[in-house]
Amino acid sequence: MKPELEEHYPLRKAAEILGVHPITLRRWEKEGKIRCVRTPSGQRRFPGSEVLRLLGGEVPSGIRAVIYARVSSAKQAGAGNLERQKKRLEEYCRDKGYQVVAAIAEQGSGLNEKRKGLARLFRMAREGKMNLVVIEFKDRLARFGFTYIEGYFNAFGVRVEVVNGEEPKSLQEELVQDMLSILTVFSAKLYGSRSREFRKKVKEAMLDASRGEQAD
Description:
The chain has 216 residues and is of the alpha/beta class. It contains 9 helices and 7 strands.
Protein backbone atom coordinates (compact mmCIF):
# COMPACT_ATOMS: atom_id res chain seq x y z
CA MET A 1 0.00 0.00 0.00
CA LYS A 2 1.33 3.40 -0.98
CA PRO A 3 1.80 5.96 1.81
CA GLU A 4 -0.69 8.83 1.78
CA LEU A 5 0.75 11.93 0.15
CA GLU A 6 0.96 15.05 2.33
CA GLU A 7 -1.31 17.90 1.29
CA HIS A 8 0.40 21.08 0.13
CA TYR A 9 -1.39 24.45 0.25
CA PRO A 10 -1.01 27.39 -2.15
CA LEU A 11 0.17 30.66 -0.60
CA ARG A 12 -3.22 32.29 -0.17
CA LYS A 13 -4.87 29.15 1.20
CA ALA A 14 -2.10 28.61 3.74
CA ALA A 15 -2.31 32.29 4.77
CA GLU A 16 -6.07 31.97 5.20
CA ILE A 17 -5.72 28.90 7.43
CA LEU A 18 -3.09 30.64 9.56
CA GLY A 19 -5.09 33.85 9.72
CA VAL A 20 -2.36 36.08 8.31
CA HIS A 21 -1.83 38.13 5.15
CA PRO A 22 0.04 36.43 2.28
CA ILE A 23 2.77 39.08 2.59
CA THR A 24 3.31 38.00 6.21
CA LEU A 25 3.60 34.37 5.13
CA ARG A 26 6.20 35.27 2.49
CA ARG A 27 8.18 37.10 5.17
CA TRP A 28 8.01 34.07 7.49
CA GLU A 29 9.37 31.92 4.66
CA LYS A 30 12.32 34.29 4.12
CA GLU A 31 13.01 34.31 7.88
CA GLY A 32 12.98 30.51 7.95
CA LYS A 33 9.92 30.27 10.19
CA ILE A 34 8.06 28.09 7.69
CA ARG A 35 9.27 25.79 4.94
CA CYS A 36 7.74 25.72 1.48
CA VAL A 37 8.39 23.84 -1.72
CA ARG A 38 8.29 25.17 -5.27
CA THR A 39 6.32 23.77 -8.16
CA PRO A 40 8.02 23.43 -11.60
CA SER A 41 6.46 26.80 -12.48
CA GLY A 42 7.98 28.42 -9.37
CA GLN A 43 4.82 28.73 -7.27
CA ARG A 44 4.97 28.26 -3.50
CA ARG A 45 3.35 25.25 -1.85
CA PHE A 46 3.26 24.97 1.95
CA PRO A 47 3.24 21.44 3.44
CA GLY A 48 0.29 20.67 5.68
CA SER A 49 2.69 19.58 8.44
CA GLU A 50 4.30 23.04 8.42
CA VAL A 51 0.94 24.76 8.63
CA LEU A 52 -0.11 22.52 11.53
CA ARG A 53 3.20 23.24 13.29
CA LEU A 54 2.56 26.97 13.19
CA LEU A 55 -1.00 26.49 14.35
CA GLY A 56 0.51 24.69 17.34
CA GLY A 57 1.88 28.01 18.55
CA GLU A 58 5.53 28.19 17.52
CA VAL A 59 4.79 31.37 15.58
CA PRO A 60 1.97 33.74 16.59
CA SER A 61 -0.83 33.01 14.16
CA GLY A 62 -3.76 34.80 15.77
CA ILE A 63 -5.42 37.65 13.96
CA ARG A 64 -4.77 41.01 15.61
CA ALA A 65 -7.64 43.17 14.45
CA VAL A 66 -8.27 46.88 14.72
CA ILE A 67 -11.88 48.01 14.47
CA TYR A 68 -12.48 51.28 12.64
CA ALA A 69 -15.88 53.00 12.91
CA ARG A 70 -16.77 56.41 11.50
CA VAL A 71 -19.74 58.74 11.09
CA SER A 72 -19.75 62.06 9.26
CA SER A 73 -21.73 64.35 11.54
CA ALA A 74 -21.98 65.25 15.21
CA LYS A 75 -25.71 64.59 14.91
CA GLN A 76 -25.04 60.96 13.97
CA ALA A 77 -22.52 60.56 16.78
CA GLY A 78 -24.92 62.14 19.27
CA ALA A 79 -27.72 59.79 18.19
CA GLY A 80 -25.56 56.81 19.14
CA ASN A 81 -24.86 55.69 15.57
CA LEU A 82 -21.10 55.66 16.12
CA GLU A 83 -21.27 53.59 19.30
CA ARG A 84 -23.69 51.09 17.74
CA GLN A 85 -21.44 50.73 14.69
CA LYS A 86 -18.49 50.04 16.95
CA LYS A 87 -20.40 47.42 18.96
CA ARG A 88 -21.55 45.64 15.79
CA LEU A 89 -17.93 45.38 14.68
CA GLU A 90 -16.81 44.12 18.10
CA GLU A 91 -19.49 41.43 18.00
CA TYR A 92 -18.42 40.46 14.48
CA CYS A 93 -14.80 40.05 15.60
CA ARG A 94 -15.83 37.96 18.61
CA ASP A 95 -17.80 35.63 16.35
CA LYS A 96 -14.79 35.30 14.05
CA GLY A 97 -12.38 34.68 16.92
CA TYR A 98 -10.30 37.78 16.15
CA GLN A 99 -8.20 39.42 18.85
CA VAL A 100 -9.23 43.10 18.92
CA VAL A 101 -6.12 45.10 19.81
CA ALA A 102 -7.75 48.53 19.31
CA ALA A 103 -11.13 50.06 18.51
CA ILE A 104 -10.99 53.41 16.72
CA ALA A 105 -14.19 55.43 16.44
CA GLU A 106 -14.30 58.96 15.10
CA GLN A 107 -16.52 61.63 13.62
CA GLY A 108 -15.39 63.16 10.33
CA SER A 109 -16.13 63.34 6.64
CA GLY A 110 -15.04 60.45 4.46
CA LEU A 111 -13.45 63.09 2.22
CA ASN A 112 -11.13 64.29 4.97
CA GLU A 113 -7.77 62.56 4.57
CA LYS A 114 -6.39 64.15 7.76
CA ARG A 115 -8.59 62.26 10.22
CA LYS A 116 -6.74 61.41 13.45
CA GLY A 117 -8.23 57.93 13.62
CA LEU A 118 -7.18 57.13 10.07
CA ALA A 119 -3.67 58.43 10.79
CA ARG A 120 -3.52 56.13 13.82
CA LEU A 121 -4.49 53.16 11.62
CA PHE A 122 -1.64 53.97 9.22
CA ARG A 123 0.80 54.27 12.12
CA MET A 124 -0.24 50.93 13.66
CA ALA A 125 0.18 49.24 10.27
CA ARG A 126 3.71 50.66 9.87
CA GLU A 127 4.64 49.57 13.38
CA GLY A 128 3.36 46.01 12.84
CA LYS A 129 0.80 46.22 15.64
CA MET A 130 -2.01 44.60 13.66
CA ASN A 131 -2.65 42.40 10.65
CA LEU A 132 -6.32 43.16 10.03
CA VAL A 133 -8.58 46.24 9.79
CA VAL A 134 -12.29 45.57 10.18
CA ILE A 135 -14.81 48.10 8.82
CA GLU A 136 -18.55 47.98 8.23
CA PHE A 137 -18.57 49.56 4.75
CA LYS A 138 -15.80 50.55 2.35
CA ASP A 139 -16.63 54.25 2.64
CA ARG A 140 -15.91 54.19 6.39
CA LEU A 141 -12.22 54.35 5.45
CA ALA A 142 -12.67 56.82 2.60
CA ARG A 143 -15.46 58.07 0.39
CA PHE A 144 -13.12 57.81 -2.61
CA GLY A 145 -9.80 56.02 -3.12
CA PHE A 146 -10.51 52.92 -1.01
CA THR A 147 -8.31 50.78 -3.29
CA TYR A 148 -5.26 53.00 -2.67
CA ILE A 149 -5.72 52.86 1.10
CA GLU A 150 -6.19 49.09 0.98
CA GLY A 151 -2.99 48.82 -1.07
CA TYR A 152 -1.12 50.83 1.57
CA PHE A 153 -2.22 48.46 4.32
CA ASN A 154 -1.40 45.39 2.21
CA ALA A 155 2.15 46.68 1.75
CA PHE A 156 2.63 46.23 5.53
CA GLY A 157 0.97 42.80 5.63
CA VAL A 158 -2.38 44.16 6.84
CA ARG A 159 -5.63 42.95 5.31
CA VAL A 160 -8.84 45.03 5.19
CA GLU A 161 -12.04 43.11 5.91
CA VAL A 162 -15.34 44.75 4.92
CA VAL A 163 -18.26 43.32 6.88
CA ASN A 164 -20.98 44.54 4.50
CA GLY A 165 -21.03 45.38 0.81
CA GLU A 166 -22.95 48.42 -0.40
CA GLU A 167 -23.99 51.04 2.10
CA PRO A 168 -27.70 51.15 3.01
CA LYS A 169 -29.99 53.95 1.91
CA SER A 170 -29.90 55.35 5.44
CA LEU A 171 -26.33 56.52 4.71
CA GLN A 172 -27.21 58.34 1.50
CA GLU A 173 -27.81 61.56 3.45
CA GLU A 174 -24.22 61.30 4.64
CA LEU A 175 -23.09 61.13 1.01
CA VAL A 176 -25.08 64.30 0.31
CA GLN A 177 -23.27 66.06 3.16
CA ASP A 178 -19.90 64.96 1.81
CA MET A 179 -20.75 66.18 -1.68
CA LEU A 180 -21.93 69.48 -0.22
CA SER A 181 -18.55 69.92 1.45
CA ILE A 182 -16.86 69.60 -1.96
CA LEU A 183 -19.33 72.04 -3.48
CA THR A 184 -18.78 74.55 -0.69
CA VAL A 185 -15.01 74.52 -1.09
CA PHE A 186 -15.02 74.88 -4.87
CA SER A 187 -17.79 77.44 -5.08
CA ALA A 188 -16.10 79.57 -2.42
CA LYS A 189 -12.89 79.52 -4.42
CA LEU A 190 -14.64 80.35 -7.68
CA TYR A 191 -17.23 82.88 -6.62
CA GLY A 192 -16.51 83.93 -3.06
CA SER A 193 -19.46 85.34 -1.11
CA ARG A 194 -21.59 85.53 -4.27
CA SER A 195 -21.85 81.73 -4.26
CA ARG A 196 -23.79 81.64 -0.97
CA GLU A 197 -27.21 81.75 -2.56
CA PHE A 198 -26.13 79.24 -5.20
CA ARG A 199 -24.90 76.81 -2.56
CA LYS A 200 -28.16 77.16 -0.67
CA LYS A 201 -30.23 76.24 -3.73
CA VAL A 202 -28.03 73.27 -4.61
CA LYS A 203 -28.14 72.03 -1.03
CA GLU A 204 -31.92 72.14 -1.00
CA ALA A 205 -32.10 70.30 -4.32
CA MET A 206 -29.68 67.56 -3.18
CA LEU A 207 -31.51 67.05 0.12
CA ASP A 208 -34.83 66.82 -1.70
CA ALA A 209 -33.35 64.21 -4.04
CA SER A 210 -31.98 62.25 -1.09
CA ARG A 211 -35.36 62.22 0.66
CA GLY A 212 -37.01 61.08 -2.54
CA GLU A 213 -34.62 58.13 -2.90
CA GLN A 214 -35.09 57.08 0.72
CA ALA A 215 -38.86 57.08 0.23
CA ASP A 216 -38.62 54.60 -2.69
